[in-house]
Design a protein that fits this description.
This protein is an all-alpha fold. The protein contains six helices and no strands.
Amino acid sequence: MNDKPFDDVMIDIYKENPELAVEMLNSILEDGEQWELMLALRHLSKAFGGVRGVAKDANLNPNQLYRTLSEKGNPELKSLTAILRAMGMRLAVQPLQTT
């Protein structure tokens, strides 16, 4: 049996279903932690052309993007917006739902 590492499985899932990536990011932004967002963005960068490809599309230096997406990364809004745009996504603000 040839098992794939978890990260590789997630990358394949996001490649096949970008809508799932959007749902996952929205969930993290709603009630997740910083490290979860960085991990998800690392997976997504690999799924959407690799770090170098995303960096090129986002007009960022690849080394800068590696640091930005590291476990201790803390991207500025400008960088985050550029990264998401390179992946075909964007940030949006929505009203809280009242029950």
